[in-house]
C-alpha cells in the first residue's frame, strides 16, 4: 500500500487525518528559551494571542529534523509499504529538503514532492492523494499525475493587514515593511510559480473588499472542486468571503479554519487566505 505523510502546515483536521491514515509531522516554534510543537503544544490562535500581548521575543519557526521524518518513513515502510510525502512550498521552509534527505536515508521506498503550496491548498492535495491511496486502486505514478493536475488547477490568495511578521521572518525587506506599516497598507498576495506575487495593495481594510470583488469576477462561471478559507484574528472579512462564496457554490462545502502556528507566524494577526481548486 501507499502511505501518506505531510507536515502540519497542510492544516488537516485530526479527524480527517485519522480517517485517511495520514501521518502529520509537526514543526517547531521557539519563543525565547521555550520550544513548542505545532500543533501538539501550540496552535495558531495561541501564537497570535502571544504576539498580540508580547512585542518580544519574536517567535521563530524551524523545519522538522531529518531524523523525525526518517523515523516516520522507517515505521511506515517496515511492512513493505511505499510512502508519498507531500510538503509545503520551499519558498517558505526547508521542510521538503529535510524530507528528501530522510527519504535518501530510508531503506524503504519513499517519494517526496514539493506541493508548491501551503495551508489548505496543500491540504487539499494531501487529501486527494490519501483518498486515492486508501482505495488501493492507484499506483504511485497515477497519484502523482493527479496531484500535478490538482496543483495546476489550484489558486491561493493571502491577505495581510501588516507585513511586520514577514519582515521579522526575513521574507521581505525592512524598508518595504516600514513603508507598509507607515501607510497602513493592506496587501493581498497570490502564491504561484513558486513565489509570492503582489495582487493588490491599498490603505485600510477596504483593500480586502476591493480584492474580493475582483476575485468574484475572476471565478464567475467557473466550476470548483474545493474552497478553503483560513484566517488569523478577526473572522469578519473571512466570514464575508465564506458567505458570498456559499451563495455562489451552495452545494460545495467550504472549509473554514484558523490557520496553523507556522503560517500565523508569517502572516501575523488579522490575515486570511482564500484557496480554490478548479474542476
TrEMBL record:
Domain of life from the UniProt record: Bacteria
Gene3D superfamilies: 3.30.1180.10, 3.40.50.10170
PROSITE patterns in the cross-refs: DEGV (PS51482)
One Pfam family recorded for the sequence: DegV
GO MF, one example: lipid binding
InterPro entries: DegV, DegV_C, DegV_domain_contain
Keyword entries, A-Z: Lipid-binding
Protein name in the entry: DegV family protein
